[in-house]
Amino acid sequence: MNKTADAVVIGGGVSGVSIAYSLAKRGVKNVAVLEKEYLASGATGRCGAGVRMQWGAELDCVFAKYSIDFFERANDELGYKGDIGFKQGGYLIVGSSEKETAQFRKNVRLQNGLGIPSKLLTPSEAKEIVPHLDETKIACATFCGRDGHLNPFHMTRAYADAAARLGARILLDTEALGIRVRGGMKTVMTNRGNIETPVVVNAAGAHAPLVAEMTGVSLPVRAERHEILVTEPVAPLQGPMVISFSKNIYCQQTPEGSFVMGRGDRDEPGSYNIGSSWSFMEKMAATCCELMPLLQDLYIVRQWAGLYSLTPDRHPIYGGVREMEGMYLACGFSGHGFMFAPATGTAVAEAVCNLPPSLPVRGLDKDRFERGEEIWEPSVV
Question: Residue 162 phi/psi, 5° resolution?
Fold first, then answer.
C-alpha cells in the first residue's frame, strides 16, 4: 500500500467512487478509496436502485436531474465494458388525500419550471399507465417517464473502474480505524497500514458519524433500518416504479421480472440493525395488495434490510468541516444517496479543488441545523 495520497475517500459505495472519479477528472490523481468490505457492500448494494426527479424541494430536483442526465450517458462517459442497466420506465407517484393532491400540484409546478417533464394525473389516467393499480384507493398521481431504475453493482463498478484508469486506488478489505491530525496533514490508520493525506472525504453512509468521531466532530446523522423484499420473476406487468409517501411503499418490476418493494417503519429506532422482520413482510404485503391486488399471488423469494443515514431535514450534508481544514463530508442522504451519486461526485470534487460550485450546494453544510436553516423535503419514502 502507498503510504501517501492526495485525498482519501472513506466509503466504497456509489458516492465514494463517484467522488474519486470526479476528483481524478479534475486532476487529483492520487486518490485512495477505502472500503472495509467489497464495493457496494453497504447501503448501495441494499437499496431499491430507483432514480427519480420528482421531488418537492428545488435542491433535490436539481441534483436528481443532473444525475439522471448523467445516468443516460454513463456507459459511454465512464467507458464501462458492461452495462449499468438504466431502464427508464418512469415513476408513478400516487397520492391518497386532498392534502397530497395539493402538494403534488405544487411539486409538478416546481419540477416543470426546472425542465422536468412530470405531469399530474387523475386516478383513471394513472390506471392507464399501471393497469393492475386499484385506482379507487388513490386521489391523484404524478408521472415522469425519464425516471427509472438501474443496477447498483454495475453503476458502482463503472465508477470505480473509470476512477482507477485515471489513477485512483480502490482499496477493498481496508477499514479506516482512526484518523490522526497533525497540522494540515491527516494520518488515516487502516488494518493494512497508514496513509498520509491532506484531504479526507467522509462518504461512509450510515457509519459517517463514527468516522467523524475519529476526529472529534459530531454529525447530526442517524442510522435507520429500511427493509426490502423481492419476488419470483414473472412476465412483464409493470413499467414504472409505483410509490406512495402516505402509504409508505415503493414497488418496481426489474428487467429480469422480479418485483422489488420496500418501505420504512416510522417507529423504527435508530440503530445499525440490518436484520429482517416478519412485521415488515406482513405490512408490505398488505399495502402492496391494497394498491395492486394482481400481485397478491406472487411468491416472495427473499428479504433484506439496509440503512438510511437520516438528517433532520432529509437533505444531504456536503462540503467542508468548520472544525478541521481538509475534512469534507458527503453523507446524510436520507435514502436518496444512490440516485444523487453523480451530483455528489461533482459537488464534493469542486469543493475539494476550490472550484466554483456548479450545483446549488450552499447551505447544505452540517452546521445548518445549529443555525436553524433546515431545508425540508416533503417527498420521502
Answer: -65, -40
